[in-house]
């Protein structure tokens, strides 16, 4: 059992300070600015709401990011308190530390530190500040520098940014949080820019009023569930820089009609897109129309429940947009014998980049998947393979394992339950738990013999 690292002197000092709230708040005017970051992290993890509120008011850096801190239900009240404590006018008490906070970032981001490094510049420096909105700090100050040839007396209010990810799912919790954000923007009299980077929308028709209050130019990641294609197209016309687009359960009367053509026209503008997720979006014989207008070299492509045809698989194997994929998900698209050749070619094309492959519920049989095995064995960077719920036999499953064990980066395989474990045809009969246990034990032994105990083979019996 690993021993827990003993607390450092700094940890002990912070713990003692946080246990005395009045002293901690009073000390904020005196402690070195270098201690603000570790004190903030400790106060956030310990849920010291009043101390966090006081810290935001006197934060001595340009930006403050949640970053790697874990935000669970208990911490959501802390986020609200931080928003409430934002100040747009100078602190009246001259004895207080002068606040420098211009950008409050409430997003969880594993690649983002609590503050950005100091840069020698007169303008506020933050690597994560808004770059596209007309209301961003950078654009406002750039305009000010052009219009003002000489320094003038600064406005009593400074431009600020509040960076968030939003999920418009209709829940009371999200509605209350959004109401708080919009109220704070209104209180600022135009000095606070609400910058939403990741926007998730459930039932677009229920969110139209809310969208009027958001600047869609800020959005990097957009997810829409349940909408008409015309509604999605209207939304896309307002974004300028998407990295990721996820559309699910989108209705379209005809793939040969005006609505689909307008949708394609908007996709053509997405020069920076590297992830496309189209789920339950019927594209039979029309995948080419979608992919050919996108930038070459997509990283992530999800196409579950899209009704892909031979024509679609053939284009997928030839198009430059899909020749460097790191992730490919074509689950729930039946794959027949004639589809195997183009899909084999696709796997060969992306064998040097593919890390995650999902081909669940594709009606793959022994004969069809045997065609794909050689190409799979060449995917040297593959880390996750999921091919559950396909009707294959135990001998074929064993053969697949033998082909895959040399792939040293492959750590997780989600495999289908062999057909002999069911009373009747695959999925229609009752599952024999003992037969499944025997399968699992046999695969475990094979992995041990191949010296691949680091490889996890799992299945689902629900």
From TrEMBL:
It comes from the Eukaryota. Keywords: Leucine-rich repeat, Repeat. The keyword Repeat applies. Gene3D superfamilies: Ribonuclease Inhibitor. One of its GO terms (cellular component) is cytoplasm. SUPFAM superfamilies: RNI-like (SSF52047). The keyword Repeat applies. InterPro entries: LRR_dom_sf, LRRC14/PRAME. This is Pramel3 protein. It comes from Phodopus roborovskii (Roborovski's desert hamster).
């Amino acid at each position: 059992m690993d021993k827990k690292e003993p607390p450092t002197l700094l940890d002990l000092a912070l713990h003692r300070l946080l246990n005395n709230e009045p002293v901690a708040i009073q000390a904020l005017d005196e402690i070195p600015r270098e201690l603000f970051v570790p004190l903030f992290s400790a106060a956030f993890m310990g849920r010291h709401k009043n101390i966090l509120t006081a810290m935001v008011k006197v934060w001595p850096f340009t930006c403050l990011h949640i970053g790697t801190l874990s935000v669970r239900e208990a911490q959501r009240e802390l986020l609200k308190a931080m928003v409430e404590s934002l100040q747009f006018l100078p602190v009246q008490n001259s004895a207080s530390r002068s606040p420098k906070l211009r950008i409050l970032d409430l997003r969880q981001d594993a690649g983002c530190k609590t503050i950005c490094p100091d840069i020698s510049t007169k303008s506020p420096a933050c690597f994560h500040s808004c770059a596209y909105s007309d209301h961003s700090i950078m654009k406002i100050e750039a305009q000010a520098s052009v219009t003002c040839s000489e320094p003038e007396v600064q406005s009593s209010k400074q431009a600020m940014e509040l960076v968030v990810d939003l999920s418009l799912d209709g829940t009371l919790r999200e509605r209350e949080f959004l109401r708080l954000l919009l109220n704070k923007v209104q209180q600022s009299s135009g000095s606070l820019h609400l910058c939403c980077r990741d926007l998730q929308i459930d039932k677009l028709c229920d969110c139209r009023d809310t969208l009027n209050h958001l600047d869609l130019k800020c959005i990097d990641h957009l997810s829409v569930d349940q909408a008409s294609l015309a509604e999605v197209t209207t939304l896309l016309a307002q974004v300028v820089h998407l990295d990721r687009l996820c559309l699910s359960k989108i209705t379209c009367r005809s793939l040969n009609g005006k609505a689909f053509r307008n949708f394609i026209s908007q996709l053509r503008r997405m020069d920076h897109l590297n992830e496309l997720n189209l789920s339950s979006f019927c594209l039979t014989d029309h995948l080419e129309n979608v992919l050919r207008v996108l930038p070459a070299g997509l990283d992530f492509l999800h196409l579950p429940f899209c009704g892909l045809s031979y024509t679609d698989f053939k284009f997928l194997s030839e198009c430059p947009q899909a020749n460097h994929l790191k992730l490919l998900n074509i689950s729930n698209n039946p794959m027949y014998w004639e589809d195997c050749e183009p899909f084999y070619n696709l796997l060969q094309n992306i064998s040097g980049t593919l890390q995650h492959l999902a081909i669940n519920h594709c009606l793959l049989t022994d004969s069809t998947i045997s065609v794909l095995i050689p190409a799979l064995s060449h995917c040297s960077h593959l880390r996750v393979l999921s091919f559950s719920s396909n009707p294959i036999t135990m001998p074929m499953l064993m053969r697949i394992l033998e082909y895959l064990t040399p792939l040293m980066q492959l750590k997780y395989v989600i495999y289908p339950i062999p057909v002999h474990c069911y009373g009747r045809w695959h999925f229609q009969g009752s599952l024999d738990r003992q037969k499944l246990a025997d399968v699992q034990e046999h695969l475990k032994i094979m992995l041990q013999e191949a010296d691949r105990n680091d490889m996890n083979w799992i299945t689902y019996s629900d």
